[in-house]
Amino acid sequence: MNLVIKSIQAFSEYDSRGDLTISGTLVLSNGQTVEASIPNTLSKNKKAGVYLENSKALKFVNDLLAPKLVDTNPLEYKKIDRWLIQLDTSERKEIFGVNTILLISELIYRAGAVISNQPLPTYLNKIYNENFEPTKLVKMPTPIFSMISGGKHGSVSLNFQEFSILFSTQTSYEQALVKATSLHHELAKVFEYRNIFSGVGNDGAYVPNLSSNYDALEIIKEAILRSKLKIGADIFFALDVASTYFYKSGKYYLSEDVGSLDQKSLMEFYEKIFKEYRFLILEDPFVEDDEKGWKMAMEKFGKKAYLLGDDLLSMNSKSLTKAVKSNLCSMANIKIFQRGTIWEVLEFIAAARKGKLKIVLSQSAIETNDSFIADLAVGVQVDFVKFGAPVRGERVIKQNRMLAIERELFNG
């Protein structure tokens, strides 16, 4: 018996910040169900997809899109996603909204895995193999863990948005999570004995009362040394600079400096940090339209570290083409909530790989308890994942899903 969609129903749900987002349930003709929920976003990037107000998104799903998908086979994922794309041909999904389209698309792929009786990452890998490029399921991605948040996500005195760490790629996912959790706890002890007040930010990272970016790096370094880990061998820094936060009228403004910085001065600052802390990943070191700055960064760090494009790319195909052609970055940040359909996400990943870019799959700053991105990350074999700190339910559920996938697919 061919299973088809009996119904799709969208609901309101609260996200990790207590704001409304949309979730949904798809019921198959045999009564089996799948569920999905969509994260919210703080991004104001004009290249990323547009989110619709919650009530409009719910109305579009329940009154317009869902009824037209009844009796459709979810295994026809390509046909369904292309139908959704054709319904909203605007570049940023201004008509139906990324949140509306992504909810439908994710439910379709989840249902396809159920019908196929395959683990979701295996099913997604099969789809990617058949439609884009041969990619064997051979490894887990390397996790990046946020330790301290600054910028618009945390301590306003810190310019950088995320001070993160990652472990050697030889470390299993489970071992990396154990070490990261231990380091997160050790960092809390350092704050305590130094009498530094620290709350917790959106993604579970600490938001301490520090005066400069160097302070944040130094205090993480102290926790690393107390944990008997060696920077540059066992553990590495990954910095999400998110430079739009401290950019104004063509200049950059840092806590460490009095006055403004041009590209050359800011590059010198990054060089000092690299010499002391040996970061492996530097994300958005210059604003998205500062092509000169990005080229300088690639020239200086291209052979020493990865230059990760987030705001630079924003899951926008034109931006990706330009970045690859001009050699502006060596790594692409994948955020499914900026794109729309899962098919378009897979297309973007394949295009980034064709451009010789490494792949990071990232969470949103405002999340839900949906773990689809964990399955997707393994299914398409991305290089790295960013799910935030190793705490908070909406982050931990993704980490726990990765542990389950590792056991099921690679430790059996």
Order of helices and strands: EEEHHHHEEHEEHEEEHEHEHEHEHEH
Summed up, the domain count is 2
Number of helical elements = 12
Give the name of the CATH superfamily of the largest domain: Enolase-like C-terminal domain
Spatial gap, N to C terminus = 31 Å
Overall morphology: globular
Sketch the major β-sheet.
8 strands, mixed, barrel
Keywords for this structure?
412 residues, alpha/beta, Enolase-like, domain 1, TIM Barrel, 2 domains, eight-stranded mixed beta barrel, three-stranded antiparallel beta sheet
What does this protein look like?
Helices cover 41% and strands 18% of the residues. The model has no long low-confidence stretch (mean pLDDT 95). Strand 13, helix 10 and strand 14 form a beta-alpha-beta unit. It has twelve helices and 15 strands. The chain is an alpha/beta fold and 412 residues long. Strands 4-5-8-11-12-13-14-15 form an eight-stranded mixed barrel, surrounded by six helices. A three-stranded antiparallel β-sheet has the order 1-2-3, covered by helices on one side. It has two domains: 5-117, Enolase-like, N-terminal domain (Enolase-like, domain 1), CATH 3.30.390.10; 142-410, TIM Barrel.
